[in-house]
């Protein structure tokens, strides 16, 4: 099995994050050989510069944290992040449209971003904290239909983050022929919890507690 650090998207999405905070985040990611840094789109160019001599990738969120902006707004934000050097995009599903059962619009919203980046990784945040069990499975099916690369549980800004139950529900609809992976995020604060998700088959972890995990400590971070 891969080492824990290689699963981690080292995350800083607070609205108060400064340029210096992002520089620190990038240095931590390099020092710990995390898979990527995950940050708001305004800092993609800075992170790309800071990580230029490393293997750490840059992941930008789009439509974060509500997912309720227009599809065109998401496309423009994603396009800007990709132009600035983002290797991956984590976009938020339009939860309101999903709750309206306008599933075609949900799929189209996701496809609008994926079409910009056929060769780069798109993760779609379905925000499981707002969904009932049958909605989690339905949302996962829509993400698969739209051609995204990952189903991601949470923004970390809702009432709760990921749960083992969420992951089991998502896994229940993934068929062997589906080329899609799972990212668990929100509330993952220690290495024991992280390993539980990995043992379930999760391919990526979104957390701001990566440093604590690597030293077998528990973080108080919300994300």
From TrEMBL:
Pfam families: DeoC (PF01791). The keyword Disulfide bond does not apply. It comes from the Bacteria. It is found in: Cytoplasm. The active site is at 90 (proton donor/acceptor), 152 (schiff-base intermediate with acetaldehyde), 183 (proton donor/acceptor). CDD domains: DeoC. Keywords: Cytoplasm, Lyase, Schiff base. InterPro entries: Aldolase_TIM, DeoC, DeoC/FbaB/LacD_aldolase, DeoC_typeI. Its main location: cytoplasm. Pathway: Carbohydrate degradation; 2-deoxy-D-ribose 1-phosphate degradation; D-glyceraldehyde 3-phosphate and acetaldehyde from 2-deoxy-alpha-D-ribose 1-phosphate: step 2/2. GO terms for molecular function: deoxyribose-phosphate aldolase activity. Belongs to the DeoC/FbaB aldolase family. DeoC type 1 subfamily. Catalyzes a reversible aldol reaction between acetaldehyde and D-glyceraldehyde 3-phosphate to generate 2-deoxy-D-ribose 5-phosphate. This is Deoxyribose-phosphate aldolase. It comes from Gaetbulibacter aestuarii.
